[in-house]
Design a protein that fits this description.
By secondary structure, this protein is mostly helical. Helix content is about 65%, strand content about 5%. It has helices at about 20-50, 55-60, 70-80, 85-95, 110, 120-145, 155-165, 170-185, 195-215; strands spanning about 1-5, 10.
């Protein structure tokens, strides 16, 4: 497990763990999300510096695996922005360089304290996170499909669809809260309120169906 201590990378090794444990998978999913968000932030900083590198090209470099600055550097080399990975880091991506975004990795102590769990609660949380992420992806795609412009964030996608008349206010409000729940799972898993998890599990499936039905009503036939 990668971690950060006083600005230095520290790799924490775990022995005898269950790699399929739901709790562990949820933590890894949250880290995967954070690293993807970091790539988007780095690409935005590069764009502000006049260097156009698409986040998709960076993610393609990672091939679905954990993504980081080295993948950004590879994409920059392929595009001809820099001549080498070393140049990318020295000019743009190094720790003190203008396009760097701090990784926000957990500390070694936090990594060592991970107690992978595989009980029903972890399974529910993981599946809720996946369902909400699917909702967000569909909402962003719908905004682009219906020319509502790119949302500024997860919750903004649902607000734009409501403003354009695609979603009712009550449903939009619940979906905005669902986006907030997804952020808690991704960024603050250990602070989850199980009462909120229960509520999300109870109403979430119906909201998902209502959202899909609302989108379907606005799609052309065939």
């Amino acid at each position: 497990m990668s971690s950060l201590f006083e600005g230095k990378d520290v790799h924490v090794l775990g022995y005898g763990i269950d790699p399929s444990a739901k709790g562990l998978l949820a933590v890894l999913s949250s880290l995967h999300v954070k690293r993807g968000e970091r790539v988007h932030a780095i690409c935005a900083k590069l764009a502000a510096l006049g260097v156009a590198v698409e986040a998709k090209a960076v993610l393609d470099e990672a091939g679905g695996k954990s993504v980081g600055r080295r993948h950004v550097a590879r994409a920059m080399v392929k595009k001809g922005v820099v001549r080498s990975i070393d140049e990318a880091f020295s000019k743009y991506l190094g720790n003190d360089s203008p396009a760097n975004v701090p990784a926000g990795e957990m500390t070694p102590a936090e990594a060592a304290d991970l107690q992978p769990a595989s009980d029903a609660a972890d399974a529910v949380i993981l599946h809720l996170w996946q369902a909400v992420q699917l909702l967000i992806d569909l909402a962003v795609a719908a905004c682009l499909r219906f020319s509502l412009s790119a949302p500024q964030g997860c919750a903004d996608a649902f607000r734009r669809l409501h403003g354009a008349g695609f979603l009712g206010s009550d449903l939009a409000d619940r979906l905005v809260r669902a986006a907030g729940f997804r952020n808690v799972v991704a960024h603050a898993y250990d602070t989850l309120d199980m009462a909120r998890v229960h509520q999300a599990a109870r109403v979430g499936p119906a909201d998902l169906r209502a959202f899909l039905a609302a989108l379907e009503r606005h799609l052309p036939p065939g």
